[in-house]
Amino acid sequence: MENWTEIKITVDAARVDEAGAIASMTVPYGIYIEDYSNLEAEALAIAKIDLIDEDLLAKDRTKGIVHIYISPEENPQEAISFIKDRLNAENIAHEIDLADCAREDWENNWKQYFKPINVGNKILIRPVWIDDYDAGDRAVLNLEPGVAFGTGTHETTRLCLQALENYITPDTVMLDVGCGSGILSVAGMLLGAKSVIGVDIDKLAVKVAVENGKLNGFSEPEYKMIVGNLTDKISGKYSVVTANIVADAIIMLTPDVKQFLSDDAVYIVSGIIDMREDEVISALSGNGFEIIRRHEENGWICFECRMAK
Fold first, then answer.
1. What is the Cα–Cα distance from 253 to 251, expressed in whole angstroms?
2. Domains and their CATH numbers in the chain
3. Per-residue b/e over 264-286, b at no fewer than 16 CB within 10 Å?
4. What does the alpha-carbon distance between residue 55 and residue 46 come to, in Å, rounded to a whole number?
5. Closest by CA position to 246, among listed 8, 1, 28
6. In angstroms, what is the C-alpha Rg of the chain?
7. Which of 34, 132, 217, 253 could form a disulfide with 65 if both were Cys (CB 3.0 to 4.6 A apart)?
8. What is the tens place of the pLDDT at every residue in 166-183?
9. What would the DSSP string read from start to end of 97-122?
10. Which pLDDT does position 29 carry in this prediction?
């Protein structure tokens, strides 16, 4: 069996999230980020200890590495060309290296960087392969992300999850646009929503989302994941709509989202790099939305919106 190609993109740690967002545009199935710049603080927050493996302590804190994987059927040079152009356009200094790797290697490599994490005030995200954790009074979101989808460790997902806490009630009917691993959908159910529908154009994403629902005790009809485009497959009205995707997709989908909103519904959008903020604001306001809250973390933006009265 042919090996896959691993592309490693090394950048300054301060810009690794931007580089990761650019790299993620090139593949739908495999990216992880090494970033040790806040190692001690993150270890203390997650594990409640300050003892860290010496190999990790020896890592270069000034650099971050983005790993992506190209299948044997695809040309890695196309991905490299795209990444270089976008990084140069954003003035992100970088080094790019290539290596061969077996699929089973990269499918497991990223797991070492995914640990239990507290999000907001109500949820702990637990990767299913870890049994040593203390949830306290938090709801536990059991997650098997697959090889490419949301784990909750990224700012964009955390901001969305924190915003959800403010709106989920026993009467909530939620729509998760671009559901990915289903993390927001499962969180909606754990927070007490009446029902959640997720939709994604990626069949693998939806398969993962269905399995993550089952891991947490949710299935149809209350928890339903659908393969397809928003307007082709979805009907009805929703009191909470989430879209944790990318700026371009939010801009494209926002005109269609309006028809799925019930009275006084909230529209939560995330995955927006700060340099694209003005474009997203323009798209939202141009379609009748007003921003009721803005959240930012490390250059990533999340908006809570409603239709203007």
1. 6
2. 4-112 (3.30.70.120), 154-307 (3.40.50.150)
3. ebbbbbbbbbeebbeebbebbee
4. 19
5. 28
6. 19
7. 34
8. 999 999 999 999 998 899
9. EEEEE-HHHHHHHGGGG---EEETTT
10. 59
